[in-house]
Amino acid sequence: MSNYTDKTLALAGMYQACRLVQQVARYGSAEPEALEQVLNTLFITDPPDALSVYGSVRNLREGLKLVTQQLQANPDPELTRYLINILHLERKLSRKPELLRTIGEGIERAHKQREHYPLPHTNLIASLAEIYSNTVSTLTPRIIVSGEQGHLANPDNASTVRALLLAAMRSAVLWSQCGGRRWQILLQRRRFMEEAASLLRNLETGS
Q1: What would the pLDDT profile of 146-180 be if each residue is shown by its tens digit?
Q2: 25 neighbors 157 (Cβ within 8 angstroms)
Q3: How far from chain centre, in Å, is Cα 108?
Q4: What's the CATH fold of domain 3-205?
Q5: Domain boundaries, the chain
Q6: If 0-12 CB within 10 Å is exposed, 13-18 middle and 19+ buried, where does residue 177 land?
Q7: What is the number of alpha carbons within 13 Å of residue 64 lying toward its C-beta?
Q8: What is the pTM of this model?
Q9: CA angle at 188 for the pair 187 and 193, rounded to the nearest 5°
Q10: Measured between alpha carbons, how far is 193 from 34 in angstroms, rounded to an integer?
Q11: What is the DSSP letter of 121?
């Protein structure tokens, strides 16, 4: 796979996690299988390549569709805001070795929990949410999630949102590792759109 393919996969991963944040905040739930696929990326800590973080291109179908939609003329401003904030916070996080160590230790503990609580069990999601609260959430600017207050006030939904934001951050770290930079999304957006469209076409044709 090319470097642009890897960066497109990471970008799709961010968008896919942010879309699930939207769904939970607005409607109070998200499809369990979709949650599992996104949150599972947090446990792939030493992948041989970018695709291994997600398991397969098929697991990123919705994120790739969002890449083709969001980089056009009329993107969803809320998703754009989430993405920009995630990328900004990832750069700050990269300069905080103590927070990175805390995240790593938290993921290790959560990994042991998976022996008893499979994704997306609420106990495991709560542990991932706590990692986010103790690390990323201490950085500024904090991500303000929009939605229905009744849903956001629900403790389980709040935990799910935080766990999903941590997963978005995991894809942002991958994006950075692949050489992704914020300015590329603006100046090279057509290249990312074409790459995402190509990956989606390959899914449809089975190639």
Answers
A1: 999 999 999 999 999 999 999 999 999 999 999 99
A2: yes
A3: 19
A4: YcfC-like (1.10.3890)
A5: 3-205
A6: middle
A7: 23
A8: 0.96
A9: 130
A10: 22
A11: -
